[in-house]
Amino acid sequence: xxxxxxxxxxxxxxxxxxxxAVGKWKTIDDETGKTRSIVEIYEEHGKFYxxxxxxxxxxEEPKDPxxxxxxxxxxxxxxxxxxxxxxxxxxxxxxxxxxVDGTILDPANGSVYECKIWVSDEGTLKxxxxxxxxxxxxxxxxx
Length: 143
Description:
- This protein is mainly β.
- The chain has a single domain (2-142), classed as Lipocalin (Beta Barrel), CATH 2.40.128.
- Helices cover 11% and strands 48% of the residues.
- It contains 1 helix and 8 strands.
- A hairpin with a 5-residue loop joins strand 6 (111-119) and strand 7.
């Protein structure tokens, strides 16, 4: 019985570990260091997605912006950014404890990048967008 309890405990911990990115995260502007948005990461049918739930805008910015920069063939073109799904089709890779093989959209410039996400030891979310061998990594904070 004791061994069964230990196996059950281990299994539950492994399951929860894979879900660490699920939740709400504050995105931080690389240049100003200001919080720009809140993104909610969620799981659906074994894949992980992220949508913008709030924007923290400066007074001179439009209050309900749309994605004018998205590619015209992208269904997000001319759609509201609040509520927009910007992270798509991520899967959790147990071997590296990372979310991989998905994409991320930067609504500011309409670019879609290959994406990898992982939770750091400090509890922040590392979000890396790729084009070929070039990449940029942002740090998102728990909300």
